[in-house]
Specification:
heterotrimer, A alpha/beta (947), B mainly alpha (338), C alpha+beta (249), A: 947 residues, alpha/beta, Dimethylsulfoxide Reductase, domain 2, Barwin-like endoglucanases, 7-stranded mixed β-sheet, 6-stranded mixed β-barrel, 26 helices, globular, B: 338 residues, mainly alpha, 2 domains
């Protein structure tokens, strides 16, 4: 046994891709094989640590599920019959298919990407294709929270904002199992706990972070919004509100017109200059809101006023206060959430007192945008983190909004100890991009790029992507009247919509890194039907499916043409600030991936999607990929990363720009940029000076700097939306009072949704499924991913699957007792769309109205390089089979999502659970694909990894 | 505990070998003092060879329990601390000493040497059996085993194997000790039976550690396992917990008792009382004892609950539940040894 | 005498398995590897791990507590696995108290694992020898590594920084200090093993509002009262108009 020095020959700095967290890694290589992956000590995100997934990256690299060569389908879809073809041929086929489709109309090509980390580049590629149909996976992931956050505070959670763990003292997690920021959160929570901070875990399930929570609030699923409203009721009642924050940084005091039945109702009362107005109590007069600070106004928060024009107006806060007082007393909230009123009151008092009275004050001088100099930075050490438990519900948008209002009441946004934005955020809400607007698909022309972004935030109904009859223009119905503010698109609707040819049929469906045939879709039997359905002529209804993936996934098995991707250890890649940034709260970060091993060493003829994208774009002669003389602009993706400039001076990576690498953020491409990144341990971190780390919505120096590097367009204060006026415009449209160009169809269902749910102030309503499923399906069923697989693309990983090769249905023992179910019984879980057989595991750590399981452990037999007899396909199960993808409203089927953002409400599912007569340990329904022949050859009885 | 077939095999072979030698040599030894006529040389040769073969087979079989057979010789290195090491040394020495004894016996060498090795073999045999038993009895993490009862009944089982086989050979070779060995068979069957029962009954009165003790947590809150860190089995759950065995145990134990003790006792008593002796009765007695002992050994392992199972929630809370009607838990306390 | 060991803080451990897989990753390629995985892609994958994470719960809903317990060789001061080894392959190092297996001497009799009350030794059926946590002895003494990396892989990787490594007999060490300060405890204290590895208990933080209740926390916000009055909201509990969501089970 030799000790020392022998474990590597080469060492690389790169970025992990076992989940969405983007931690810095050190990769050690011996004999051209990866021996060890360690967290990068210097990386600001993970500070040297690495999670279970990151530490198992080796087994991803050498997975038997790895695809070897491009595949062309030879048998029926799902049969697993493919022939291997050469890259040239594969790209030719793809180019031909895409070209044929684009000639009919670019919208006939739909490109949807899953958990990719190059959305900015993929989106740009889709723009070059000229199609309107592109989006990433936000539609089923987090768009509710992201949208609510951007609309409220100009930033959100996850990649966009973090608690100030160094200073926070009270940290509430709502609806979080594990998260994007996997390692930073664990680091942060332990840091806070060691200082004696309190972690409150609001979740129907006490697991993972819940284990170390100081208080567990086992809220009934889907009622988090009511809980948060209840907290705000108490804060208001006890006057635990940061009035200065509300006054200076939000529009809570702005006056809202109360004129029901008119087109002005619910909009801000504006003066002749179009500026919103407040009622100044000192001068007893109406004053423009932008004079609050310079003139030291004392705006009224409560009351009702009459304007000189005779309009009735109320401060936005007043409208909300009435709602809080009337509907959300702790006693009422207890009835909804199951959380005792006294606990709600106590928790609210705790957070209020800590936010307002904690002595935390940083001795840092700073200047606000109004020129006032502050000697210190006063802390508000209460912070929050929210995730899918809130996002994935049909009331998710308004619930998330409630959380943002709670943050505003406590003033804990961008204050020391509070919740901080990560640069390039926050941004001015009014400057956030809108989806590029077209009026008809005929505006899309072959060979012409889409002139603007696919995604964004519509500010009023005229920004929607609908035709003159109000029909959706996008395949996924994003930005239609059904899902007007679908900020991330609606990937979950793509396959059902393409199958139903509603709104129209498509020719080519391209899927990158998304498992839409399995765990990323809902109601899988229906999805399989959609993927395999044929028309009268015997052609597939969805004619051509191209998938880009490194592994033999279920999606690959149902594709026609497959491009085998390289892994994260085999390619150049940028974790860009243009994308979801890998930044930290104290400054922007971007990072690099570099090839560490060569797939050819494993006999794999695979190419990174980036290279393939450049090749396809070049062969299609898409404008962004060829020079005027028709010559290719980029040699390959590495070249692309260096030289691509979506805006002059701005590229994929922000560090070491300029010819000599002496400019950051903005500067001409630097041919040596990637080398400079590798020299700097793979990342670029601009650590903001101390006086620019907090209060960035109104921090003069920060905003000036942010403008200089292009993060914001102006240095005005970033006003937060206590009241989201733009929502009211949609509501007016629902009432028939919108005076713009786009009008909703005369459909009572649509109009009712607009009127009811586009409330500019948050409220709680029961998830839709409650009414539809009713008492017949009394339990909430939802999923979470275990920490060792969260966001991991490969739960087939040899090491990780040893931790969980199958999943259970977790249930409270008392619930089980009432249903006559015993520990480890096999049961049926039945929803209104189907049923699935699985095994029950009883635990007191689950709220009695809930059953839940781990997602994506269950696999289709034969997929993912596993033997068909693998646990994953037999005792493991997929809850998605019973999750509805649509809902009947007013006799018509609508895709099931949040009415504002379209966020798939997969946590809403209601089920009944009963003991299976047949106790055979086998899930049902079962699906099976044939493993590729070469995958079978890779199966070994014993694996002994020691390169 | 997962029952290793190789160790069960070793028990049967080594047990028969040592048990048989003990009685064989006892006859020779008694002859020294003018008690009895000893054994004909050829019988000693035959039995001796059988004993040698059995201990050889036992050692060979037991080596299958080892990952590395060729390194087995290294097992002598920790004689001072390891009962397994002692077992290896004693059983090896027993075999060697037995061989020397046989040679001396057959050559008609100096009786001093012969009996020196006879006694040595006798002692080494007992020590070998004792060491094997102590491997189990000294394991304080398997409470069922961790008792002198284990050692006593282990040795008694050796004697039971030896006496029943010796009875058979007495009949086969028309030796004048048939009556004696029928009686000794009866005696050791009864004693082994009694101590095996004691071994079982003792289990009901074990003060078992709890999960709280394992995790060193307050005792007033019951703890449940939610996740063992692996949805499949691992070495620990397989080596220390034999799921199938636990399910079969309540069936196997009665059968083991029946075959090892009840039926042979009946046969021996029948022979004793009616005076009916033949190949069948005496041969079958040994065969029953042998087959029964295999099952008994199997049960011995499966009955053993390793405290590490506490971490997996696989440790019994109190004495395991036998099939209803077979043995009820009694209120009276039986004190066997201390 | 020095006793190297791990101290694991259950107050920050979230049960993420990072320590387990990073341990596997390091050790399979290092001096004491490989750690075999059997049937890796099949029905019942089962491999050799030095470190496993168990999860337990106690109490009844809603007063349930959940905790995770990472469990690897505890490097006992009175290691029962050492004397039972017939060959001396299982041994405890004098200089640092690390319990190791010398693969060249191990005959694979498994007796050491029988003599471990913690289930922290795993037999590798492929190598036919017993394997166990080495406290990354091939890291901690490796002078080619930067000094800050000379720690067990699990300690370096733990995202909850729940793992401490050092000499628990050295009053100057961090591990000694945290054991003292945080009432570190051991598993199975009655087994006479005197484990090296310690655990730090959970601590529940509560916020004491007493002082604030007296002076600040008064439900008399005039604005609240004004809203209540203006909208004629009764101070008493009022049932919401919507259909009540009832307890479903």
């Amino acid at each position: 046994m030799e000790i020392g020095g022998s474990f590597y020959e080469r060492k690389y700095y790169s970025t992990c891709y076992m989940c969405a967290c983007r931690c810095g890694i050190e990769v050690y290589v011996r004999n051209n094989k990866v021996t060890y992956i360690k967290g990068n000590d210097d990386h600001p995100l993970n500070k040297g640590v690495l999670c279970a997934k990151g530490s198992s990256g080796i087994m991803k690299e050498y997975s038997p599920a790895r695809l070897r060569k491009p595949l062309l389908r030879t048998g029926p879809r799902g049969s697993g019959q493919f022939k291997e073809i050469e890259w040239d041929e594969a790209i030719d086929i793809a180019v031909r298919w895409i070209e044929e489709a684009m000639k009919k109309n670019p919208a006939k090509v739909a490109f949807f990407t899953g958990r990719d980390q190059m959305q900015a580049i993929n989106g740009w590629f889709a723009q070059q294709l000229g199609t309107i149909n592109w989006a990433a996976h936000g539609g089923f992931c987090s768009v509710n929270v992201a949208t609510a956050g951007l609309l409220s505070t100009g930033y959100s959670f996850w990649e966009f904002g973090d608690p100030d763990f160094e200073n926070t003292k009270y940290f509430m997690m709502i609806g979080v199992a594990e998260d994007h920021a996997s390692n930073p959160f664990k680091l942060g929570i332990q840091e806070m706990k060691r200082r004696g901070g309190k972690l409150v875990f609001v979740n129907p399930v006490r697991w993972s972070y819940g284990a170390i929570a100081d208080e567990w609030v086992p809220v009934k699923p889907g009622t988090d919004g009511a809980f948060v409203m209840g907290l705000m009721h108490v804060l208001f009642k006890y006057n635990l509100i940061d009035w200065t924050f509300l006054k200076e940084q939000t529009n809570a005091s702005w006056l809202v017109i109360q004129a029901p039945g008119t087109s002005k109702d619910g909009l801000f009362y504006r003066n002749e200059e179009g500026k919103p107005v407040v009622y100044d109590k000192k001068s007893k007069s109406f004053q423009p809101a932008d004079r609050i600070v310079p003139d030291d106004l004392d705006p009224a928060f409560v009351g009702e006023f009459e304007t000189p024009e005779g309009l009735r107006v109320r401060p936005a806060f007043d409208i909300f206060a009435e709602r809080l007082v009337r509907d959300y007393s702790p006693e009422k909230v207890e009835k909804i959430t199951g959380i005792p009123a006294k606990d709600i009151e106590r928790i609210a008092k705790e957070m209020g007192v800590i936010a307002l009275y904690d002595p935390l004050e940083l001795p840092v001088e700073w200047t606000d945008v109004w020129g006032r100099k502050h000697k210190t930075m006063k802390g508000r050490p209460v912070s929050f983190h929210i995730m899918r438990g809130i996002a994935s519900r049909s009331n998710g948008f308004q619930t998330a909004r409630a959380v943002f209002l709670l943050k505003m009441l406590l003033g804990c946004i961008e204050a020391p100890g509070g919740h901080l934005a990560k640069p390039p955020y926050p941004k001015h809400i009014e400057d956030l991009p809108k989806p590029y607007r077209i009026r008809s698909l005929d505006e899309l022309k072959y060979g012409e790029p889409l002139k603007g972004p696919h995604l964004g935030l519509p500010q009023n109904p005229d920004d929607l992507l609908v035709d003159e009859n109000g029909n959706p223009l996008r395949l996924d119905r994003a930005y239609s009247w059904e899902f007007p503010i679908a900020a991330h698109g609606c990937i979950q609707n793509v396959i059902p919509a393409a199958y139903q040819r509603d709104p129209y049929d498509i020719e080519v469906l391209m899927i990158y890194m998304a498992n839409m045939a399995w765990n990323s879709s809902q109601n899988i039997p229906y999805i399989i039907e959609a993927l395999t359905a044929k028309d009268a002529a015997g052609n597939y209804v969805i004619p051509r499916i191209i998938t880009i993936d490194a592994f033999y996934s279920e999606q690959v098995a149902y594709s026609d043409l497959v491009f085998p991707d390289a892994t994260y250890l085999e390619q150049w890649f940028a974790l860009s600030l243009l994308d979801r940034p890998p930044s930290v709260a104290f400054g922007p970060v971007d990072a690099l991936r570099q090839p560490v091993v060569d797939p050819k060493d494993q006999g794999l003829d695979v190419r990174p999607w980036g290279d393939v994208m450049v090749e396809i774009g070049t062969r299609l002669k898409l404008p962004g990929f060829v020079n005027e003389d028709g010559t290719p602009k980029y040699k390959d993706f590495k070249d692309f990363l260096i030289n691509w400039q979506p805006r002059p001076g701005v590229g994929a990576l922000a560090g070491w720009r300029g010819k000599n690498g002496d400019k950051h953020f903005v500067g001409e491409p630097n041919p040596k940029q990637l080398e400079m990144y590798t020299k700097n341990k793979g990342f670029f971190y601009y650590r903001l000076p101390k006086h620019m780390r907090y209060f960035r919505h109104i921090n003069k120096d920060y905003l000036e700097w942010a403008k200089s590097v292009g993060f914001v367009k102006k240095t005005d204060p970033i006003m937060m939306n206590f009241y989201v006026e733009s929502l009211q415009t949609f509501r007016l449209a629902g009432q028939g009072l919108w005076e713009g160009e786009n009008q909703p169809p005369n459909d009572p269902v649509i109009r009712d949704r607009l009127t009811k749910y586009f409330d500019p102030l948050p409220f709680w309503y029961p998830p839709f499924e409650e009414e539809v499923s009713g008492e017949e399906y009394p339990l909430y069923a939802f999923t979470a991913r275990p920490q060792w697989m969260y966001h991991s693309w490969d739960s087939q990983n040899v090491w990780l699957r040893q931790i969980s090769s199958r999943n259970f249905l977790y249930m409270n023992p008392k619930t089980a007792e009432k249903l006559g179910i015993k520990h480890l019984d096999w049961v049926w879980v039945e929803s209104r769309v189907g049923r699935v057989k699985c095994q029950v595991f009883l635990t007191e750590a689950t709220e009695p109205n809930s059953v839940w399981t781990w997602n994506a452990i269950g696999k289709m037999q034969g997929a993912w390089g596993l033997k068909p007899e693998a646990d994953e396909g037999h005792e493991g199960f997929l809850l998605n089979h019973v999750i509805p993808h649509s809902i009947k409203l007013g006799g018509r089927e609508v895709f099931y999502g949040d009415p504002v953002t379209g966020h798939l409400a997969w946590f809403d599912t209601r089920v009944k659970v009963y003991r299976a007569e047949d106790q055979t340990p086998e899930t049902y329904p079962e699906f099976r694909v044939e493993p590729l022949p070469y995958i079978k050859e890779r199966w070994v009885d014993v694996m002994r990894y020691k390169p | 505990m997962h029952p290793p077939i190789s160790l069960i095999f070793f028990f049967l072979t080594a047990g028969t070998s040592i048990g048989l030698f003990i009685f064989m040599y006892s006859i020779e030894f008694l002859k020294l003092f003018g008690k009895g006529q000893g054994l004909p040389e050829e019988v000693i040769l035959k039995l001796g060879i059988l004993e040698l073969i059995l201990i050889g087979l036992g050692a060979f079989g037991a080596s299958f329990h080892l990952g590395h057979k060729l390194r087995a010789w290294k097992a002598i290195k920790r004689f001072r601390t390891s009962w397994l090491s002692r077992e290896a040394v004693f059983s090896g020495a027993y075999g060697f000493s037995l061989l020397v004894y046989l040679i001396l016996n057959q050559l008609g060498a100096n009786p001093l040497f012969e009996h020196f090795f006879g006694i040595l073999t006798f002692v080494l045999g007992v020590l070998s059996g004792f060491s094997t038993a102590m491997i189990y009895a000294s394991n304080r993490f398997v409470l069922e085993w961790n008792s002198s009862v284990t050692v006593i009944y282990y040795l008694l089982m050796y004697l039971m194997l030896g006496s029943t086989l010796m009875a058979y050979f007495s009949y086969l070779y028309r030796l004048p000790y048939l009556g004696t060995f029928i009686f000794l068979s009866f005696l050791f069957l009864v004693l082994a039976f009694g101590f095996r029962l004691a071994f079982n009954i003792r289990q009901f009165y074990l003060k078992r550690p709890t999960m709280n003790e394992a995790l060193n947590l307050p005792h007033n809150r019951p703890i449940r396992v939610v996740d063992t860190g692996s949805t499949t089995d691992n070495y620990c759950t397989e080596e220390f917990y034999y799921r199938k065995g636990k399910e079969m145990l309540s069936t196997v134990i009665p059968i083991a008792y029946l075959l090892t003790f009840i039926v042979p006792l009946f046969l021996v008593l029948y022979a004793w009382i009616t005076g009916t002796v033949n190949h069948w009765i005496l041969g079958l007695t040994y065969i029953f004892v042998l087959v029964g002992s295999a099952l008994e050994r199997w049960s011995f392992f499966v009955e053993g609950n390793h405290v590490q199972n506490l971490f997996y929630g696989l440790y019994p809370e109190e004495g395991y539940k036998l099939r209803k009607g077979y043995m009820e838990r009694k209120e009276t306390k039986i004190s066997l040894y201390g | 005498m020095a006793q190297f060991a791990l101290v694991i803080d259950l107050n920050t451990c979230v049960g993420c398995h990072a320590c387990a897989t990073n341990c596997k990753e390091w050790n399979t390629q290092a001096a004491f590897g490989p750690l075999s995985d059997f049937d890796p892609y099949g029905a019942r994958p089962e491999g050799v791990w030095y470190n496993r994470i168990m999860t337990y719960e106690t109490g009844e809903f809603p007063n349930t507590q959940v905790f995770h317990l990472p469990k690897s060789c505890l490097h006992c001061q009175d290691a029962p696995c050492v004397p039972v080894c017939p060959t001396g392959a299982s041994y405890k190092r004098e200089q640092d108290g690390i319990v190791l297996v010398n693969y060249d001497d191990c005959i694979g009799c498994k007796l050491c694992s029988w003599s471990c009350p913690y289930g922290c030794r795993e037999f590798d059926e492929a190598d036919k020898v017993m394997k166990k946590c080495t406290l990354c002895i091939d890291r901690i003494y490796d002078e080619s590594l930067p000094p800050e990396h000379r720690k067990p892989a699990c300690v370096l990787t733990c995202p909850a920084r729940a793992r401490f490594f050092g000499d628990i007999e050295d009053p100057e060490s961090e591990v000694y200090r945290v054991i003292e300060e945080r009432n570190g405890f051991v598993l199975f204290p009655d087994m006479g093993t005197n484990p090296g590895n310690h655990y730090l208990p959970r601590i529940e933080t509560r916020v004491n509002l007493e002082e604030f209740e007296k002076h600040i926390l008064k439900p008399d916000n005039p604005l609240f009262l004004e809203v209540m009055k203006r909208h004629h909201v009764s101070n008493k509990t009022q049932l919401p108009e919507e259909k009540q969501v009832e307890e479903v089970v």
